[in-house]
Amino acid sequence: MAEKSTVTFIITRQDSPDSEPYEETFHVPYRQNMNVISALMEIQRNPVNANGEETSPVMWEMSCLEEVCGACSMVINGTARQSCAALVDQLEQPIRLAPMSTFPVVRDLIVDRERMFDALKQVKAWVPIDGTHDLGPGPRMPENKRQWAYELSKCMTCGVCLEACPNVNDKSDFIGPAALSQVRLFNAHPTGAMHASDRLEGLMEDGGISGCGNSQNCVQVCPKGIPLTTSIAAMNRATNLHAFRSFFGSDKTL
Questions:
Q1: What is the CATH architecture of 114-247?
Q2: What per-residue confidence (pLDDT) applies to 160?
Q3: Residues 160, 222: contact at Cβ < 8 Å?
Q4: What is this enzyme's EC (predicted)?
Q5: Which phi-psi region, left, alpha or beta, contains residue 91 (left: φ > 0; alpha: ψ -120 to 50)?
Q6: How far apart are CA 254 and CA 247, in angstroms?
Q7: Residue 232: its pLDDT value, please?
Q8: Per-residue confidence (pLDDT) for residue 136, from 0 to 100
Q9: Cα–Cα distance, 224 to 217 (Å, whole number)
Q10: Coil, helix or strand at residue 84
Q11: Of the candidates 113, 219, 203, which has an alpha carbon nearest to the alpha carbon of residue 164?
Q12: Which end of the chain is more exposed for a tag (fewer CB within 10 A), N or C?
C-alpha cells in the first residue's frame, strides 16, 4: 500500500462570537505519529485551504501539550477530547474538527469556558488558608483517603464532561459534573473540611446537584478517568444529610 502523503481536515470555523459558522477543508502534509495539534500548527504556518486559496490561520488554544492543562479540548470526529493526545493515525479520515458546543465560541475552535470557573466559585472550590500560615502544619490526610482524593485532583477543567452531559446547555444553569467532584475533593481535605458546609450550600443552590440527570456520560468521556459518578453519588448523600441536619438545627457535616 502506498504511503499517504496528506491528511484531510474539515474544520468548523467561526470568525467572531456573533458570526455564522462555516466549514473549511485543508490538506496537511502527513508525518508519522503526528497529532491534531501538529496538523493545526502546519495550517497556521501555511494557511491555504484545499482549494488552493489563502485564508486566515485557524485559531485554537493549547498550553502544556501533555494532556494536563485541558486548554486544547475540541470535538474531534464527533467526540470531545484533547487535541494534543489525538493521534492522526488513530483517527477516521477525513478528520473533522469543531469547537465544543456547550460553550460560547470565541473564534474557530476557541471557546469561552467561563461557566466552569463560575461553577468553581459557586461551590468555593478552594481551601481558605489566608492568615493561618503562622499556625504551624495542618492535619495530615490519611493515606487511604489521599489515594482516592488524588484521583479527583487530576481534573484539568477541560470541559469534556460538560460537553458530554445532556443537562449542561444554554437553557440550563447546571454547573456540571466537574464542579460537583471538586466539592468532594476539597471537603476531603483536612483543612478544607472546616468549610465543608459552605461548599454543600453551594451545591444546593440553583444549578447545583439537583440538575444532574444521572446520564453517566461524564465518567465515560473523562480523559483522566476521574470517578465522577461516584463523586456525584457521594455529594448527593452529603447534601441530603446536610439539609436534614440543618433542618434540625445541627451544623455538623459529613
A1: Orthogonal Bundle (1.10)
A2: 97
A3: yes
A4: 1.3.5.1
A5: beta
A6: 15
A7: 96
A8: 74
A9: 14
A10: helix
A11: 219
A12: N
pLDDT at 80 over 60: yes
Q: What is the mean pLDDT of residues 50-71?
A: 95
Say if residues 113 and 157 touch (Cβ distance below 8 Å). yes
pLDDT digits (tens, 9 = 90+) for 157-193: 999 999 999 999 888 899 999 999 999 999 999 989 9
Query: Domain spans of the chain?
Result: 6-111, 114-247
CATH number of 6-111: 3.10.20.30
The dihedral region occupied by 41, where left means phi > 0, alpha psi between -120 and 50, and beta the remainder, is alpha
**Do residues 113 and 176 touch, judged by C-beta distance below 8 A?**
no
Instruction: Return the SS3 of 22.
Output: strand
Q: Indicate the length of the chain as a whole number.
A: 254
Q: Decide: 175 and 119 in contact? Cβ < 8 Å.
A: yes
The mean of the pLDDT values for the chain is: 92
Model confidence at 135: pLDDT above 90: no
Query: In Å, what is the CA distance from 72 to each residue of 64, 80, 172?
Result: 9, 10, 25
Q: Give the model confidence (pLDDT) of 222-243 as tens digits.
A: 999 999 999 999 999 999 999 9
Tell me the three-class secondary structure of 27-53, residue by residue. Answer: EEECCCCCEHHHHHHHHHHCCECCCCC
Query: What type of residue is 41?
Result: M
CA distances from 172 to 175, 191, 210, 212, 228 (A): 9, 33, 12, 11, 20
